[in-house]
Amino acid sequence: MSIILKYEGEIGRYSKPILGLYLSIAVICCKEISDVRAETLSARAYGINPIFGKTVSFEGKNRSMQTQRIIDFSSSIPKFDWGITGKTFDENLKILGEIFGFTSNRPEQKEKGTLDVCWCDEERKIVIGFENKVDKTNKILSKTEIDQCSGHMNWLTDNFIGYEKVLFIVGDIEGYHDLASPHKDLSHIDISDIARISDKISLAYAKKTFPEQIDQLLLENNLIINKLFPTKKVIDSKKVKFN
User: Fold this and answer.
1) HEC profile for the chain?
2) Range with the poorest average pLDDT among 5-9, 31-35, 127-131, 211-215
3) Which residues fall within 8 angstroms of residue 180, CB to CB, at 6 or more apart?
4) pTM to 2 decimals?
């Protein structure tokens, strides 16, 4: 057990799932010798994946996976510059998802033509995808761009069965081509929406010394995955006829 705890940083950088497995082994060792760290280690394993551990309960309520991951996040919160666009924007958005306590990745890095960024809350069974259009100078989505997003929704449907799914186009969007057919769950948000929640997440991290208060704070400040962003459906924006 001591070896696992000594090298958990290196293990985690190599593979989070493997760290979860090793932490679950450490929990078994703790229980064998009545070590009081068993509950804490089990909760940390749960934060990686529920199959590895068990959540902590406080006053009859289970700590959420999002809160557990916030507690376990050991790096400092970076100061994001949301004026930087392109792939740096995508990477910053991925890191922000991790800071929020979600599973966050950049699918397009592994599978060309898919989403730029994806956040997932496995406990609440909600996944949100982001398509980066922050460099777009024309504020009207073309039929090609709408069709591209329909492909992204199909990808989410195939990869997150049983999840609530939302796809956001990130950028200054005012309308779409009148011949396009936006998906009903396709929305758009501005960079300012990203910056707003980026500034607010520090509230949760300020409560890490009082972890039993984090879940309530996340709820009160709309910092859970389905409350983060305003609902601005693309289909409700204006249709524009292209010449």
Assistant:
1) CHHHHHCHHHHHHHCHHHHHHHHHHHHHHHHHCCCCCHHHHHHHHHHHCHHHCCCCEECCEECCHHHHHHHHCCCCCCCCCCCCCHHHHHHHHHHHHHHCCCEEECHHHHCCCCCCEEEEECCCCEEEEEEECCCCCCCEECHHHHHHHHHHHHHHHHHCCCCEEEEEEECCCCEEECCCCCCCCEEEECHHHHHHHHHHCHHHHCCCCCHHHHHHHHHHCCCCCCCCCCCCEHHHCEEECCC
2) 5-9
3) 141, 142, 143, 145, 146, 147
4) 0.84
Q: What percent of the chain has pLDDT over 70?
A: 93
Identify the weakest region by mean pLDDT among 111-115, 142-146, 182-186.
111-115
Q: What is the bridge-based pairing of β-strands 117-121 and 103-105?
A: antiparallel
d(CA 23, CA 43) in angstroms, rounded, equals 9
Digit-coded pLDDT (tens) for 71-97:
888 888 899 999 998 899 999 999 999
- Residue carrying structure tokens 């010798």: 33
Q: Give pLDDT tens digits for 8-28.
A: 677 667 677 677 777 777 766
Calpha distance 48→68 (Å, rounded): 9
Kindly report the number of other CB atoms within 10 A of residue 84's CB atom. 12
Look at residue 153 and tell me whether its pLDDT is greater than 90.
yes
